[in-house]
Specification:
It is a single chain. The chain is of the alpha/beta class. Helix content is about 35%, strand content about 20%. It contains eight helices and 13 strands. Helix 7 (about 225-230) runs parallel beside helix 8 (about 250-260).
């Protein structure tokens, strides 16, 4: 039995990863980030430690003491936390001081390198969940009109360009006009902002970054995503096939049908 380290942010993603690790006969040692993680993780993890994202040396010490060699990061950790008044230990301060910029990729790659220095290997967060990756084509809902399909084609090019600059991975489009681009606020707030600006019947396009590092950054949609789309009267969401995880996949598909939202794998 191998001890797998799970560093947990928010949403249901960490639960699914923990379940799959245990199904394969391994032990889950969870670092539940105080700022983000769900207390219900206590029920599924073999060991759980509640630590602040700023206590980097403590996180490393705990994982080493538990004989963890393999780590998975799962669940969102809001980028805005780095601008909040969290208390950092000496190693976190050292890591932050070494950054050439504070883009998400830069921060996380630096953290991954620090784990490697201590003999721990970070693996892609979707390794255990390949069955939940989005397929190509119509996934749920009604077929799109010609104009809607053109909006998605237009939005895909914009989203890929924006993602390439590590700004965000989602854009909202209507009538070949970009209503909103995701930034530090996250996908949900981007969609809400687009509705305020452009009203109903927009389309959302969510992609992976070019050369995305899947060790710590996988595009994800969940049932809450469908709630946000419905509340903001979005017509469709296009997600990149083979790289976007659909958490609670069957439930997402059924919920989207009831909400009148089309999901398309592109």
């Amino acid at each position: 039995m191998e001890s797998i380290g799970l560093i947990s942010g928010n949403n249901r993603f960490p639960f699914l990863v923990a379940q799959e690790i245990k199904k394969r006969g391994n032990r889950v040692v969870c670092i539940a980030l105080k700022e983000e993680a769900n207390p219900e993780l206590e029920r599924i993890c073999d060991k759980i430690y509640w630590l602040s994202v700023g206590k980097f040396q403590k996180i490393i010490d705990v994982l080493k003491n538990e004989n963890v060699k393999t780590i998975i990061m799962a669940g969102q950790v809001k980028h805005s936390i780095i601008y909040s008044a969290i208390s950092m230990d000496w190693r976190a301060i050292k890591v932050m001081g070494s950054l050439v910029n504070k883009k998400a990729d830069t921060i996380l790659k630096t953290i991954a390198n620090e784990f490697e220095k201590d003999g721990m290997h970070l693996i892609p967060s979707h390794v255990y969940l390949t069955s939940l990756l989005a397929p190509k084509g119509l996934i749920s809902g009604k077929k799109l009109s010609s104009d809607e399909s053109k909006d998605i084609e237009f939005g895909y090019k914009i989203a890929k360009a924006v993602a390439g600059f590590d700004i965000g991975q989602t854009v909202v489009v209507k009538d070949k006009s970009v209503l909103a681009v995701e930034s530090i606020e996250g996908t949900d707030e981007c969609i809400k902002r687009a509705y305020k600006l452009g009203g109903e019947n927009s389309v959302v396009v969510k992609v992976a970054k070019p050369n995305q590092d899947f060790r710590f950054d996988v595009p994800v949609i969940g049932t809450n995503t469908i709630d946000i789309l419905k509340e903001n009267k979005v017509r469709a969401i296009a997600i990149e096939t083979g790289v976007t995880l659909m958490l609670n996949k069957d439930e997402i598909i059924e919920k989207a049908k009831r909400a009148g939202v089309t999901i398309l794998g592109i």
